[in-house]
């Protein structure tokens, strides 16, 4: 699958409503927002004339054509180049769990579905699962049933839930949890399948899952080693 990316934008927290409206004007209907805090020193903030370090982090799935148009708007309309205003980045996706999920996440955008080829020789991938709030353990139980390692979750707020009924045939809650799990590429399909079957959109968890290629890792204890210890 080519030309599909995960967009990330980090900006000041107080601009959420302005950014959500901005996204819709560029046909980005489905976004996920979580909160963060900047790490700039007080002396740097004073130098830049800034006060707040409270941040909002936005995630969305976009095509490259959408990104090209959005990028121009980020400079000309949102003035993202102003010091301290924010930063945007693009990460290629390697797979999305189901055609309907892809249609939902990219509603309003023109998409091309081709052979999966972006960084396909990587040894690890990052699975990103977005589910209704309160179902993190359900997600992890499903992932562990396919021998996934541990994960990390953050709380988020979704937009575009009104499109879920059209594309997925269900109603989704606005409050979300995003679960991040780094897995071996060879295990990816089994783990994604387990999450979709046990906690997918036709369950109360309502999980959406996609993967991002990882070029290198450190600190990961191989699951094979753990399984070998259990068998001893």
From TrEMBL:
GO biological process, one term: regulation of nitrogen utilization
SMART domains the record matches: P-II (SM00938)
Signal peptide: none
Any one Gene Ontology molecular-function term assigned to this protein's record: enzyme regulator activity
PROSITE patterns registered for this protein in UniProt: PII_GLNB_DOM (PS51343)
Protein name per UniProt: P-II family nitrogen regulator
């Amino acid at each position: 699958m080519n030309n599909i990316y995960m967009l990330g934008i980090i900006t000041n927290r107080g601009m959420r409503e302005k950014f959500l409206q901005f996204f819709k004007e560029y046909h980005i209907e489905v976004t996920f927002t979580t909160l963060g805090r900047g790490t700039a020193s007080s002396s740097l903030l004073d130098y830049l004339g800034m006060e707040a370090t409270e941040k909002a982090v936005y995630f969305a799935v976009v095509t490259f054509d959408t990104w090209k148009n959005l990028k121009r708007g980020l400079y000309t309309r949102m003035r993202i180049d102003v010091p301290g205003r924010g930063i945007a980045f693009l990460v290629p996706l390697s797979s999305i769990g189901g055609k309907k999920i892809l249609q939902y996440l990219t509603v309003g955008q023109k998409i091309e579905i081709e052979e999966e080829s972006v960084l396909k020789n990587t040894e690890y991938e990052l699975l990103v699962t977005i589910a209704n709030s309160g179902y993190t353990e359900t997600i992890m139980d499903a992932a562990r049933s396919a021998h996934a390692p541990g994960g990390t979750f953050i709380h988020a707020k979704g937009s575009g839930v009104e499109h879920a009924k059209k594309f997925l045939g269900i109603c989704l809650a606005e409050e979300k949890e995003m679960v991040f799990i780094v897995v071996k590429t060879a295990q990816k399909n089994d783990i994604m399948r387990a999450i979709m079957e046990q906690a997918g959109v036709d369950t109360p968890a309502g999980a959406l899952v996609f993967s991002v290629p990882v070029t290198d890792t450190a600190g990961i204890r191989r699951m094979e080693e753990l399984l070998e210890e259990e068998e001893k």
